[in-house]
Design a protein that fits this description.
Blueprint: E1 8-11, E2 31-34, E3 39-41, E4 46-54, E5 59-66, E6 70-80, E7 87-88, E8 93-97, E9 108-114, E10 122-123, H1 125-129, E11 136-137, H2 143-146, E12 149-153, H3 158-169, E13 173-175, H4 181-186, E14 189-193, E15 203-206, H5 211-221
Parallel strand pairs: 12-13, 12-14, 14-15
Antiparallel strand pairs: 1-2, 1-11, 2-9, 3-8, 4-5, 4-7, 5-6, 6-8, 6-9, 9-10
Helix pairs in contact: 3-5
The chain binds zinc ion.
């Protein structure tokens, strides 16, 4: 389920940093949401592995570990009503949206990472929420569209081509290292961009002599 009711996306996943905002990485690693209803809900079940206050970053935040596989981060909270070690069911209240930490306005920063934490193991949170990763009112992706195709790439320049194909096919994009067995099983077709790596027997590799050539091959599919 969604972490906020009637959520509106103000800053999508992978958005480049806006002026005056420093991301630890070169892009927005979560998705920013606002709503007229400030209650924050658990999007999945799990256990609270962290609750803290990080003034230059996330402000008041909680981290919920789902099935020992994913860390779901809820940041910039006004307050959190859970404690570390608490078991959580999907839909439980976690806290209230706030303006704590590095923010320009009240919103929820929702982020998903493959557990345990490492650098660059963020996952498109929109896929987890079953919504399109774009500004505006959160819009559900119909399941049959969502799982039909999966776009996979290596980190780096090929991410752009992969993102383009993802938009064209209305399908999620994921780094090779973050592909999970569930995603592989759910997808009918898996496009692997810029690498010969065999992700699964279903995968179709799109690789050029260089990144421009790879991009051209992706564009040919989108014609
Ligand atoms: Zn954010």
């Amino acid at each position: 389920m969604m972490p906020l009711k009637n959520a509106i996306i103000t800053n999508p996943y992978k958005a480049p940093p806006s002026e005056g905002v420093n991301y630890a990485k070169l892009y927005h690693t979560g998705i920013d949401l606002i709503s007229d209803n400030l209650t924050v809900y658990a999007t999945l079940s799990g256990i609270i592995t962290a609750k803290g206050y990080d003034p230059p970053g996330w402000g008041n935040y909680v981290i919920l570990r789902h099935k020992d596989k994913y860390d779901l981060i809820y940041a910039h909270l006004y307050s959190a009503n859970v404690v570390r070690g608490q078991n959580i069911s999907e839909g439980d209240r976690l806290g209230i949206v706030g303006v704590t930490g590095q923010v320009t306005g009240s919103h929820l920063h929702y982020e998903v990472r493959k557990a345990p934490w490492e650098l660059q193991n963020d996952i498109d949170p929109a896929v987890f929420l079953g919504i399109y990763n774009r500004k505006g009112p959160a819009e559900s992706i119909k399941e049959e569209i969502m799982i039909k195709n999966l776009i996979v790439c290596m980190p780096g320049p090929d991410e752009r081509a992969a993102g383009y194909l993802g938009d064209y096919l209305k399908s999620p994009v994921c780094l090779v290292r973050n592909v999970t067995q569930e995603l592989i099983e759910a997808a009918e077709k898996i496009y692997v961009i810029g690498t010969e790596e065999k992700v699964s027997s279903k995968s179709i590799n799109i690789v050029g002599d260089n990144r421009y050539d790879t991009c051209q091959k992706v564009l040919n599919i989108c014609k």
